[in-house]
Amino acid sequence: MSAATGQRILAAVEARIGEADLVVLSDYAKGVLSDAVLRGVIDRARSAGVPAIADPKNRDFSRYAGVALLTPNRQELALATLLADAGDQAVAEAASRLVEPAGLPAILVTRGEAGMTLVRSGAPPVHLPAEAREVFDVSGAGDSVLAALAMALAAGADLVAAARLANIAGGIAVGRTGTTAVSLADLAEALHARAVDRSSAAKVVDLATAQARAAFWRSAGERVGFTNGCFDLLHPGHVALLSQARGGCHRLIVGINSDDSVRRLKGDGRPVQSEEARATVLASLAMVDLVVIFGADTPLELIEALRPDLLVKGADYKMDEVVGADLVRGYGGEVMLARLEPGHSTSSTIGRIGRRAG
Description:
With 358 residues, the protein is α/β, with parallel strands linked by helices.
């Protein structure tokens, strides 16, 4: 690239730098980011108070001194530092040796299947595991990471939060075939899925935790409901029961029979799904606040411990058949028989599947 072309690039940057929230320097080593252009852009960005991030292709990382963040991949870091070991500690130590001497406050090393490592001056390293569950194509993944980083940092996110978002974007990119843009909708969906996974796992608790949580909710003036069942193969009847139960209280706790308990009650071949799977499905429902697995044939121990304000069973039960009904009504609670959705039961669903398979 000629010196005149470089000057035109710098003039364009200087004219627009005041409108920018962040500058991205994606170095493909094709000649545009010459030493003069690179230094000129970084200096102009710093003078304007605009942070810059750079994706390097040169083993001399000091060329990028002055950027807020450098994003080498594992191979680029190895070339710059003669790194041999690809483990977390070795990568962090190698990047740390470059931070201050190269005039770089932070380095984010993208490491493929090993995830990412963020090294900042004066802070412990942060290792982020890879987000991709299955890799189809790594083409363009680095650009997706850089774009997500830029977007997050320009919006005001800190480096760790931006790196986490970029890690998710990279995982989405490698999970697709060919180079493809990762959209805001893609990121939102991935973040929502992560939130559901985390919140669902947090909802499955032991009895002591559920008891403490119920007491806290009640102290805050909230009405606590309880229902129970096997919940093997969730169907519209289950959803209707849970919806009616949640409509009568502020917080709903669901007790589910353990695998051994279901086997005793329903016979061999049941449950179809394990207790962990059944608990996870229930916990993913917004109407369910907690799930407790119990091993007894009845939920009486749970009801005695939780002392729900509302006890709910299906209308296929009579009031005198509901376990714990007398106890709940005895301390002033309410017992509800929820209306059923005709034609929906786990046994009938299994029967239909068997007939069709036959």
